[in-house]
Amino acid sequence: MPRPPGHGPGFEVRRQKIIDIAASLFAQQGYAATSINDLGRAVGLAKGALYYYIGSKENLLVEIQSRVMGPLLARARQIAELDEGPLVRLRLLSESLLTIIFRRLDHIWVYEHDYRSLSGEELKTLLGQRSDFEQVISGLLAEAMEQHVFRTMSARLATLQFLNLHNHTYQWVNPDGQWDAAFLSQEYCATLFRGFGAPDHALPKIEELAEAFKRDHPGLPLDPETEWEQVPATG
Fold first, then answer.
1. Cβ(126)–Cβ(65) under 8 Å?
2. Would you tell me how many other CB atoms lie within 10 Å of the CB of residue 226?
3. Are 100 and 72 in contact, with CB atoms under 8 Å apart?
4. What contacts 17, CB < 8 A, 6 or more positions away?
5. DSSP assigned state of 171
6. Which of 50, 59, 189, 198 could be stapled to 45 by a disulfide with Cβ–Cβ 3.0 to 4.6 Å?
7. ∠ Cα 113 169 16 (to 5°)
8. What residues have CB less than 8 Å from 151, skipping those under 6 apart?
9. For residue 180, what are the contacts with CB-CB under 8 A and spacing of at least 6?
10. Which residues contact 123 (CB under 8 A, 6 or more apart)?
11. Do 223 and 99 meet the contact criterion of CB atoms below 8 Å apart?
């Protein structure tokens, strides 16, 4: 939701905090069972003041997804444009996706379970964000097929397999457990890449290249919510 004119910098900070609290409340109680009064009490605002920040309860579902998809989609596009092979970029994108799943479990739980409550423009916006992210993945998978790193298959089906393996992680993952985002990304990509037809000898190299990229580019973190540093132009 665009910031109305005349609002100071504190408006957006407060609005994002409200979105985070709403995600936690909806994840605990369910979207349908949570009233606007419940949310108002949780954030310490009367109904009128709350609507000033969020527009509507329905709009909150879009805002909750945007809290995840905004930075994730921007980072995915940056990764897709890197001068690296498609498998390395898929591996980096995988870790970026899992990083935000670990951090924003409530948000992901809500939009995975409650997006069907939307209709009209709100639903169109939400589905559009998902489609844009899927297209980035499909493009990298298609590139790997064109280079004969992967066997030829439906890029759409390959994309669904990639998403199915990653997107269900929120249902069971413990962010404080023994597996972090980097480890799960390594395991997921090893499974997917072998299934997609990458030769076994290429897989250890992918991990070496992914680790080398992260080590050599500390200003380009995979965390979608951390800004990338400007890379000086060469030539």
1. yes
2. 13
3. yes
4. 43
5. G
6. 50
7. 60
8. 145, 196, 197
9. 102
10. 115
11. yes
For the cut 60, the answer to whether the pLDDT of residue 133 exceeds it is yes
CB 58 within 8 A of CB 117: yes
Q: How confident is the model at residue 5 (pLDDT cuts 50, 70, 90)?
A: very low
Q: How far is residue 219's CA from residue 156's CA, in Å, rounded to a whole number? A: 33
Please give the Cα distance from 73 to 134 (Å, whole number).
9
Residue 86 has a CB neighbour count (10 Å cut-off) of 19
Q: Count H helices, E strands: the chain? A: 10, 0
Q: What is the mean pLDDT of residues 149-157?
A: 94
User: Of the candidates 2, 138, 118, which has an alpha carbon nearest to the alpha carbon of residue 59?
Assistant: 118
Cβ count near 148 (within 10 Å): 9
| Maximum Cα–Cα distance across the chain | 61
